[in-house]
Amino acid sequence: MKKNWPLWEVFVRSKNGLEHRHFGSLRAADAEMALENARDVYTRRNEGVSIWVVESKHITASNPKDHGELFEPAQDKVYRHPTFYNLPDDVKHM
Amino acid sequence: MANTDLYNYILGIADNSLILGQRLGELCGHGPNLETDIALTNISLDLIGQTRSYYQYAASFSEEYKTEDDIAFLRLEREYRNVLLVEQPNTHFGFVIGRQYLFDVYHYMLMDELQNTKDDTLQAIARKCIKEVSYHKRFSGDWLKRLGDGTEESHQKMQEAINGLWRFTNELFELTESEDAMIKAGIGVDVSKMKEHYYAEVSLLLNEATLQVPERKNFTSGGKKGTHTEHFGYILSELQYMQRTFPNMTW
User: What residues pair up with A12 in beta bridges, in sequence order?
Assistant: First the structure.
């Protein structure tokens, strides 16, 4: 192949009621082919009931270089987790 | 053997799946890219799975062969009943797609009709197969359209493939004696009645793919009666190698 097909990201829902999760990526010439390829590559062992594909270029990703300003400030703010409360024994499923 | 006609009838269907499955299996690791490589081998595995169901059924009442493996691996060339179309060698991807599509359209119609058979086992197999075959047809049909209506080169290669394979299509609808007998018994499908429908459906897709529909002439046949093309011996030498070299070996 002289030129590579565009890259697509594949999301598969493994059961009804669960969310679609990122499974991986593949190459395809268009959306229809991406869907068929995803079916063949990612659901051949009965992994899913629904597939989404989206061309990778449409995904806006955070830049690893911005890791410091984006994520590190949250590391020392443990009070944002609700772990400082004493839960009464009667309360379940929290 | 009391059920010779039924036995021959089952093998007539099963051998198509075995040989096409074997041909597609040869492509494992050699597909044009990862995605189509996996797709083609998926189809191969579907076909070989179908073959197992048929052979298990045939072996259950055969006096000559006891297991599905015996039927798959121990017959001589003349005893295989697959059509010539499915044994044609892999050349380029367009050819593989053309061979697949020309078979898939027929296969789908056959499975659709076979669901009405009086034979419970064949009915169960057909019900399971039709979902697989339906996807095979979708896959090969989509690719045929892409290649036919693609670049100048893909169009030309796809047209050559269709022209080269066309002469094998009529054999799909020729009836053997066993098929005749099984049709009369309410078990077999009268494939000769599917012929016009088949050519109409294929022509429609070829038109959509901007390809010429070849003339319906110069057809050739023989596979259903055991007379195969020169490629068949090579298929068997690979398919049967292990059983011929190490008789009765098991995995």
Answer: A21, A51
Nearest to A36 among B33, B34, B139 (CB): B139
Please write the tens of the pLDDT for every residue from B120-129: 999 999 999 9
Chain A, nearest residue to B147 by Cα = A29
- Within 8 A of A40 by CB-CB distance, chain B residues are 35, 38-39, 42
Q: Which residue of B has its CA nearest to A4?
A: B33
Cβ atoms B109, B9 nearer than 8 A: no
pTM for this model (two decimals): 0.88
Question: Taking all residues of chain B, what is their mean pLDDT, rounded to a whole number?
Answer: 95
Beta bridge partner(s), residue B188: none
C-alpha–C-alpha distance, residues B30 and B91, integer Å? 11
For A36, the domain range is: 7-61
Q: Is B35 close to A44, i.e. CB distance below 8 A? A: no
Q: B141: Cβ–Cβ under 8 A, 6 or more apart, which residues?
A: B101, B104, B205
- The CA distance from B70 to the nearest CA of chain A, in Å, is 29
Q: Would you call B146 and A29 a contact, using CB atoms and an 8 Å cutoff?
A: yes
Write down the pLDDT at residue A94. Answer: 65
Q: Specify the CATH number for the domain of residue A31.
A: 3.10.20.520
Number of domains in chain A: 1
Say which of B35, B42, B139 has its CB closest to residue A26: B35
More confident residue, B178 or A85: B178
The shortest C-alpha distance from A35 to chain B (Å) reads 11
- Residue A33 domain-assigned? yes
B202: in domain: yes
Residue A44 and residue B138: Cβ atoms within 8 Å?
A: no
Would you place residue B171 in the very low, low, confident or very high pLDDT band (cuts 50, 70, 90)? Answer: very high
The answer to whether the CB of B87 falls within 8 A of the CB of B16 is no
State pLDDT tens for residues B232-246.
999 999 999 999 999
Helices B120-148 and B195-208 pack at an angle, to 10 degrees, of 30
